[in-house]
């Protein structure tokens, strides 16, 4: 298997790097990936890969059927970029001001396209059906995955796999483990209405900042007082808007405040969100203020199935990758919607520069950098190895 996959990657050559750099230079925001989608569909069509009908928006699903029976395996890439001004001085830096591939979705798209085109040339390797899932809008709620599930793709797929490039870990490493790996997320927004007035006559007003201040404290105490001490969760009030800066003698009539919840248990997220709403309504009622509550339930917790984790770890060992011992992240990933439907696996594939000429960079950063010349071929090798290992495991 090793030699077969290596030959395929060598056959593809430097085109994977060229494709990633083209995509990096032409980023598009969530739900606006029209040119990226046109590029994907044109290449799939040219490679003779049919596409599913009935897929919404800018998502695209190509597929190939093998001559032998086997499982239906999905390989997923997200395609959208971020609202960042790129600060890298690169010949392929973003040509669109304020838009940047600062999370590696350009790499994911190039890797999956390479896998699709190679398997189209070597259909003798395919058993059952392989689906190439190019997903719009991973970065922006409600995300692209939930609509793909509504479009019915998980009714066709038995197992779903993905990698996410990691700009903080060097090439030759991967983080892939079973269980919960990414958090369930939620956001809350309060609009509190009191009665404005003069600071010298507070008894004639009803200051909405009073319940707002109590709410900040009460909400931040939820993890400590309302949740199991062993649960991993964060609750943060992240904005508070009221009054006029520098105008000290005017009591405002309105306050806007809100924040976010991140927790590794989707059910616990529901409890926390309901508790936030309860606190908002009761504390404001105690101060005779009105409140409008808006809750947004974002991505659920992302769970890697044990069967999929075993396949991905076996592929890593086959390539002599170091499997990092990394705890779950309170970041979010809408791959979770796939994992709710069928056994699924996602791993973080190291692509930081091992020579340290470029410092490792966090994701969602204007200096985000991947060592693509060496990392992309290795990532392609890994995706193909995972696919072939999955075929062997699920016979």
From TrEMBL:
> For the Peptidase M20 dimerisation domain, which residue ranges apply?
187-279
Domain of life the protein comes from: Bacteria
Molecular function, one GO term: hydrolase activity
* Key words of the record: Hydrolase, Manganese, Metal-binding
Q: Where does Mn(2+) bind?
A: 103, 105, 139, 164, 364
Instruction: Please give the cofactor(s) recorded in the UniProt entry for this protein.
Output: Mn(2+)
| Cofactor details (free text) | The Mn(2+) ion enhances activity.
The record's listing under PANTHER family reads: METALLOPEPTIDASE, PUTATIVE (AFU_ORTHOLOGUE AFUA_6G09600)-RELATED, PEPTIDASE M20 FAMILY MEMBER
Protein name as annotated: Amidohydrolase
**Which species is this record about?**
Megasphaera cerevisiae DSM 20462
């Amino acid at each position: 298997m090793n030699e077969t996959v290596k030959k395929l990657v060598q056959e593809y050559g430097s085109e994977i790097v060229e494709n990633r750099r083209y995509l990096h230079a032409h980023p598009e925001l969530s739900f606006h990936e029209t040119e990226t989608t046109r590029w994907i569909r044109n290449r799939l069509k040219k490679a003779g890969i049919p596409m599913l009908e009935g897929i919404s928006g800018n998502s695209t699903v190509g597929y190939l059927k093998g001559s032998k029976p086997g499982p239906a395996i999905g390989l997923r890439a997200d395609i959208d970029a971020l609202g960042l001004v790129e600060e890298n001085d690169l010949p392929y830096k973003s040509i669109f001001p304020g838009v940047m591939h600062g999370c590696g979705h350009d790499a994911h798209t190039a890797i999956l396209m390479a896998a699709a085109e190679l398997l189209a040339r070597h259909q003798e390797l395919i058993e059952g059906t392989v689906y190439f899932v190019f997903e719009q809008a991973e970065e922006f709620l409600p995300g692209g995955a939930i609509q793909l599930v509504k479009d019915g793709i998980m009714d066709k797929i038995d197992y779903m796999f993905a990698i996410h490039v990691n700009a903080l870990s060097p090439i030759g490493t991967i983080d892939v483990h079973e269980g919960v790996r990414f958090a369930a997320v939620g956001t809350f927004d309060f609009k509190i209405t009191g009665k404005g007035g003069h600071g010298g006559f507070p008894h004639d007003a009803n200051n909405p900042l009073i319940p707002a201040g109590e709410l900040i404290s009460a909400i931040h105490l939820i993890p400590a007082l309302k949740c199991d001490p062993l649960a991993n969760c964060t609750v943060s009030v992240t904005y508070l808007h009221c009054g006029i800066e520098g105008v000290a003698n005017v009591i405002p009539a309105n306050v806007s405040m809100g924040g976010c919840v991140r927790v590794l248990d989707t059910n616990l997220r529901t409890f926390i969100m309901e508790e936030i709403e309860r606190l908002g309504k009761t504390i404001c009622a105690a101060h005779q203020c009105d409140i409008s509550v808006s809750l947004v339930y974002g991505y659920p917790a992302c769970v890697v199935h044990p069967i999929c984790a075993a396949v991905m770890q076996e592929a890593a060992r086959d390539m002599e990758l170091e499997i990092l011992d990394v705890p779950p992240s309170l970041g979010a990933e809408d791959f979770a919607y796939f994992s709710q439907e069928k056994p699924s696996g996602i791993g973080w594939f190291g692509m930081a520069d091992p020579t340290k000429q470029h410092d490792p960079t966090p994701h969602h950063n204007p200096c985000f950098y991947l060592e693509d010349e060496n990392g992309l071929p290795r990532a392609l090798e890994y995706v193909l190895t995972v696919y072939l290992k999955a075929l062997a495991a699920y016979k």
